[in-house]
Amino acid sequence: MNKMTNEMQQLLEEACELARGHLGEGRVASYIPELAKTNPANLGVCVMTKEGECFQAGDTEIPFTIQSIGKTFSLILALETGGFEETFSKVGMEPSGDSFDSIIQLEMKNWTPYNPLINCGAIATVSCIRSKTPFEDYLDLVRRLCGDPKARLSEKVYNSEKRTGDRNRAIAYLLKSDKILGGDAEEVLDLYFRFCSVLVTAKGLARYGMILANDGVDPISGERMVDARIVKTVKTLMLLCGMYDESGEFAVKIGIPSKSGVGGGIVSAAKCGMGIATYGPVLNAKGNSVGGEVILEYLSEKLGLHMFQG
Ligand code: GLU
After folding, report:
1. Class of residue 238 by CB neighbours under 10 A (exposed 0-12, middle 13-18, buried 19+)
2. CATH topology of domain 3-66+198-303
3. 220-249, pLDDT tens digit by residue?
């Protein structure tokens, strides 16, 4: 290992060590019963550079469900197939400042969800995907961008979400009654639950973060994987809304466009074409990974990754 490699490896291990000391500050999600079975001690981080180097510490190959990180993939698919105009006629681009599953704002903004990265906005976004095989297309996109052919549906989490997702069901029917959601609400919900229940790893998500950080191009093969305008839109929304009602504080402290999910993952598209993903299922009160945030704050400071810092 050369000096750079050694230093990066050491940083990741230090970050994990530091994060481990904070895991008592939160809890594993339990509102989806299947998620409550996750081991709270799981913790890992993976960094992928545009040169194709991969650095990892901790649990980077344990599969966990993508949950809200999947909202970025739904948005890519909706923009690719339904287009910008149609999608953003159903969902806004504003940070909500409310929790991920909030419904209070719907009535306050003509029933248009604030953004595609919270539940109501994601359900509206899923309805904008124009495809005869939306789940297959979604899974294919996740597999390609994560470089992980093993990404697949967790039937257990999917069934658990579908059985208990009454709040999301309420959101979908509200959206339908107010004409934001066209089509069949149950079909859209079924897709949404499936999208949330796809198993990924920190390693796969780090590659996805790296592709986003390189504006949609795989820097190793030179292949364009996602349209540049779509990536620009997704990354901007990640910075503004990717960490639910903690997005502002996260942007000030850490300053890297990121998206979290209640499965414990956070994906980040950092400066210099670097992708980072963390996994730690212990969540804080806002629904973000406690360990992941500690790791990202440490790396942002040590590697100078804050986007508004030279
Ligand atoms: N499946 C979760 C839900 O809809 C996703 C929430 C999240 O990761 O924030 O409740």
Report:
1. buried
2. Beta-lactamase (3.40.710)
3. 999 999 999 999 999 999 999 999 999 999
